[in-house]
Write a structure and sequence with these properties.
two-stranded antiparallel sheet; 11 helices; globular; eight-stranded mixed beta sheet; Alkaline Phosphatase, subunit A
Length: about 425
């Protein structure tokens, strides 16, 4: 990346910051949300392309045969052929072979299986998991989960109340403060906080320039009152903090040998590497810049052809390995994840049968993983054992029940909101109260 490109990226960001305070994620004085815990953290991690749940959150025993499922384990590399037995919520269950690193965090897991994603089209699925509210076609409805969860605690002390990495972010119902700051890539964070050059001005001159800048009220003042002016001033103050408080060292992954080792980072400049993304998420939280981050952690999972046998398990593992390292960090100061929610999702799943090209196509029956979040540990939901089809469940027990109903993403969204002290009403469904600890 050239120096001119860095300057353009920073200039574009700062120009956008000053354009309209009402539209800024930084704008406005922070407000305490309705949640009981002012330090509540939220992380949303997206696996782009539709993951194969048989290799992850909803595996099958390769020692058994299934009438409607092609496991095709003989085509997989040896390390991906056996699922991993773990104890979750006092019950033994299986994790897919790609989740070996996550086994150490089974004690804080809640797995939702057999979630009806209601689509097998990528744009609609991406819109759905962004808000956990049914989209209108491919158009998202409502607020991003990150935006919503950012209001679950106080955020007046945060420079960046809500950050989104590689994903769109939406805010319809909440104050401008919590609109997500969107980074195209995780490595953009380092660019953002690194000063372009030493200031040519003395501290006195800089102070005078800043004071003059703050005195400018703009043409909207008379029409809209003091609020836009206050918002703009707050936005400037937060931006100055971001640039002046030495955060550049925290995001210089190349110079942190311990961090690179823990996350398995081989190239700290690889913006698409799950390890780099997860480490950046960790640093955003660790520095106190934010308590809410949503990130596209992995991509390239749309494996319709023979590449399924190699790319799907390897890419899932890279994502789950990075996630496991992130949770290691999060559990340093929150061992039971009582005030931390990590949600992991993909837009839908992949078919149980292998297609004519040697891969798997798109499938409705997805899974969602939550670590922490104030939820009861265990497995809620199921797919049909022989076919990976959608199954009705008793939502109280999470077990199959012909008289029950199939889980939907909005059930999970409402439950996470309720557990965080937020209203579940936007999801238009009742939260799964039996699954709130």
């Amino acid at each position: 990346m050239t120096d001119s490109h860095l300057r353009f990226a920073r200039r574009s960001f700062l120009t956008g910051l000053g354009a309209s305070a009402l539209l800024l994620p930084f704008a406005g004085t922070g407000r305490a949300g309705p949640g009981d815990d002012a330090q509540r953290r939220y992380v949303g991690l997206y696996f782009n392309g539709a993951w194969d749940v048989l290799l992850g959150l909803d595996p099958r025993d390769p020692g058994q045969s299934y009438s409607g499922i092609d496991l095709d384990t003989d085509r997989l590399p040896a390390e991906y052929r056996e699922p991993i037995p773990v104890m979750i919520g006092g019950q033994e269950t299986l994790l897919g072979s790609s989740m070996s690193a996550m086994a150490r965090h089974a004690d804080v897991m809640t797995i939702f299986r057999g979630v009806n994603m209601n689509t097998v089209a990528h744009p609609a699925g991406r819109a759905y998991v962004n808000t956990f509210i049914p989209p209108s076609g491919v158009v998202p409805k409502g607020d991003s989960m990150g935006t919503r969860m950012a209001t679950a605690g106080a955020y007046d002390d945060l420079i960046l109340p809500n950050v989104s990495v590689g994903m769109p972010t939406f805010n319809l119902a909440f104050p401008a403060d919590v609109t997500g700051v969107r980074l195209q890539r995780a490595t953009d964070m380092s660019d953002l906080v690194t000063p372009l050059q030493a200031s040519p001005f003395s501290p006195e001159t800089l102070a005078a320039l800043q004071a003059a800048q703050d005195e400018v009220e703009g043409c909207v003042h008379d029409q809209y009152g003091a609020r836009p002016v206050d918002d703009l001033r707050t936005a400037r103050e937060r931006m100055r903090e971001l640039l002046e408080d030495g955060y550049d060292a925290a995001f210089d992954l190349a110079s942190d040998t311990d961090l690179r080792t823990r996350y398995g980072i081989t190239n700290p400049n690889d913006a698409n590497a799950p390890a780099v993304i997860a480490a950046t998420v960790s640093r955003l939280l660790e520095t106190g810049l934010t308590r809410t981050v949503t990130a596209q952690l992995q991509r390239g999972l749309d494996t319709h052809g023979p590449e399924w046998a190699t790319l799907q398990p390897a890419r899932q593992r890279a994502g789950f390995d990075a996630m496991a390292a992130l949770i290691d960090d999060l559990r340093q100061d929150d061992p039971q994840m009582d005030r931390t929610t990590v949600v992991v999702f993909s837009e839908f799943a992949r078919t149980p049968k292998i297609n004519g090209r040697g891969g798997r196509d798109h499938h409705f029956a997805g899974s969602v993983l939550v670590c922490g979040g104030g939820l009861r540990r265990g497995v809620c939901g199921a797919t049909v054992e022989q076919t990976l089809g959608l199954a009705a469940i008793d939502t109280a027990t999470g077990l199959p029940d012909p008289g029950g109903r199939v889980l939907l993403p909005e059930d999970i969204g409402a439950t996470l909101a309720e557990a965080a002290g937020l209203s579940p009403d936007p999801f238009r469904t009742q939260p799964l109260s039996d699954w709130i600890a």
